[in-house]
Amino acid sequence: MKAKSDALREQVRKTSSAKKEGGSGRLPHAERRAQILETASDFFAENGLTGQTRMLADACGVSQRLLYRFFPTKQELVAEVYREEILGAFKAGWFVDLQNRNLSAEERFTAFYVDYLETTLTCKWLRLFLYASLSDASMAPDYITSIVTQLLEVLMREAAHEIGIDLPDDREAVHEMAWTLHGSISHYAIRRHIYKASWNVPEKQVVKMHVRMFLAGLGAMVEAYNAENS
Amino acid sequence: MKAKSDALREQVRKTSSAKKEGGSGRLPHAERRAQILETASDFFAENGLTGQTRMLADACGVSQRLLYRFFPTKQELVAEVYREEILGAFKAGWFVDLQNRNLSAEERFTAFYVDYLETTLTCKWLRLFLYASLSDASMAPDYITSIVTQLLEVLMREAAHEIGIDLPDDREAVHEMAWTLHGSISHYAIRRHIYKASWNVPEKQVVKMHVRMFLAGLGAMVEAYNAENS
DNA sequence: CTCGTAAGTCGTCAATTGACGACATAAGAA
DNA sequence: TTCTTATGTCGTCAATTGACGACTTACGAG
Q1: Phi, psi at B103, each rounded to 5°
Q2: Which pLDDT tens digit goes with each residue over B66-105?
Q3: pLDDT reported for residue B15
Q4: What is the number of other CB atoms lying within 10 angstroms of the CB of residue A11?
Q5: What is the CATH number of the domain that holds B32?
Q6: Are residues B98 and B147 in the same domain?
Q7: 3-state secondary structure A25-50
Q8: Which Gene3D superfamilies match (chains A, B) (predicted)?
């Protein structure tokens, strides 16, 4: 069964590099490094962070040894992929657009989440994020505390302004409320990309439904909270 | 570095078997098999489906060879764990209670999800489910089509009855609406157990907030759908 | 053209890892 | 007690896998 592994690796090489790879000769340091990172993000998303360096090298169309010219260990390579792909997938402009009160909150939220689903909550991003979260519990909190928390607060501020209510002082509780929207849409993406659920309802319509429900139910949710904590 | 792996395995043995293991002598076939499966579910949840058989054997307090007396391959062992832990974690009584109209929908839904979070959406269940879904895309759909879909329909039927509205004929669309609740609560569990987010807001209160928002926003969501598809 | 340097590969090592044949031993039936 | 049998372990094999020393070769400056 010596051939088993080799056959698999060969298959990987053909699958992922047939398009642009094959005739790429020598590359300067920075370019090769970038190409490896790009391929590696696809590779680890597909095969998990335990994917083997030999297969990755085949996917890159280079020798396994070459990987170690750019990254001291496999762990470092994985960490770099994580930094590039996970932490770098958020558009700063989103915060601006979300606070543009010339449009209704429903319009802004819908536009944001349609974009967010397409740009960030992709199959690749989700798989990397989940693999990383499962193997190292310290990775996800980075993303959440640094970015998502800000997003939650903007969402709640804009929604509350739109429907004319006051929010509780407890920030944790306010975050939890915003998660009802952000979480349900994130889970929608997980369902589609990770669980491979069928999705015959158009994406934009799904987003609209989630946003509409959030804006229509927010008042009642805040009331429920206040009734509990008075 | 020969000692590295051994030290790790030893650590595993102490951690997971110190309580009941240690003095357990020979066991009849069925009992040993059950004990291995129980330990294996914890082990694979923690270490992923690529966790090694030697470490698992240490956690069980038996030799690695013994595992192969019960399961022909590691893959079979993993599959059996999945069947036991994932597919067997749903209480039939839930469907009954959810349709008991002597209580309000809000009460029923809240009680159900508090129980569901404690019984099914545990750290162990979620980790196994996600690891399995990531490595084999055919696993999650089993659970979803066989169980969750029924749940979604019950939720929608009861909610629609409670607030006195008609549901669209498109079943897929109705499912998608129920997912706004089921998904947001599932994602809440993922946040807590996988992303290790902090959770200072009491669980029961969070569930109440999600349910309240769902029941309060459902009418608007259905309207939004009908407006789009008339 | 020549030569230094950086890009890239080959082959290998030590540790790991799934799997299993051969052997050892405890528990119960006769 | 003795013998059978199921329970359980030891040691090992072949394949894998992260890592790296030694070597080769393309490319550009002079």
Answers
A1: -105, 160
A2: 999 999 999 999 999 999 999 888 899 999 999 999 999 9
A3: 62
A4: 12
A5: 1.10.357.10
A6: yes
A7: CCCCHHHHHHHHHHHHHHHHHHHCCC
A8: Tetracycline Repressor, domain 2
Which of B28, B51, B85 terminates a domain? The answer is: B85
Tell me if A215 and B217 make a contact (CB, 8 A cut-off). Answer: yes
Cβ count near B29 (within 10 Å):
9
* A32 in contact with nucleic chain D (CB within 7 A): no
As a whole number of angstroms, the distance between CA A141 and CA A138 comes to 6
Decide: residue B50, CB within 10 A, 0-12 exposed, 13-18 middle, 19+ buried.
Answer: middle
Q: Which residue of B has its CA nearest to A212?
A: B221
Through-space separation of residue A187 CA and nucleotide C9 C1' in angstroms: 45
pLDDT of residue A144: 77
Q: Provide the CA B110 distance to its chain's centre, in angstroms.
A: 18
Average pLDDT (A98-107) is 98
- Which of B140, B210, B216 is facing A196, going by the closest CB pair? B140
Is the CB atom of residue A52 positioned under 7 angstroms from any atom of strand D?
yes
Domain identity same for A167 and A214: yes
Domain boundary residue, one of B85, B120, B150: B85
**Distance C11 C1' – A2 CA (angstroms):** 17
Q: Are residues B38 and B105 in the same domain?
A: no
Query: Is residue B204 predicted with pLDDT exceeding 80?
Result: yes
Chain B positions touching A219 (Cβ under 8 A) are 216
- B43 with B93, same domain: the answer is no
Task: Say whether both B185 and B99 belong to one domain.
Answer: yes
Which range of residues forms the domain containing residue B76?
2-85
CA A73 to C1' D24, whole Å: 24
Query: Nearest residue of B to residue A219 by CA position?
Result: B213
Q: Which residues of A touch B140 (CB under 8 A)?
A: 194-197
Answer left, alpha or beta for residue A163, where phi above 0 means left and psi between -120 and 50 means alpha. Answer: alpha
- Number of domains into which chain A is organized: 2
The residue to which tokens 């499962």 are assigned: A134
pLDDT band at A10 (very low <50, low <70, confident <90, very high): low
Measured between CB atoms, which of B127, B176, B217 is closest to A216? B217
CA distances from B186 to A8, A113, B8, B110 (A): 36, 19, 33, 14
Q: Who contacts A146 (Cβ-Cβ below 8 Å, separation ≥6)?
A: A87
Q: Which nucleotides of D are covered by protein (CB under 7 A)?
A: 6-11, 14-22, 26-27
Locus of tokens 């369902």: A191
Q: Is A63 within 8 Å of A9 (Cβ atoms)?
A: no
pLDDT at residue number A16 = 53
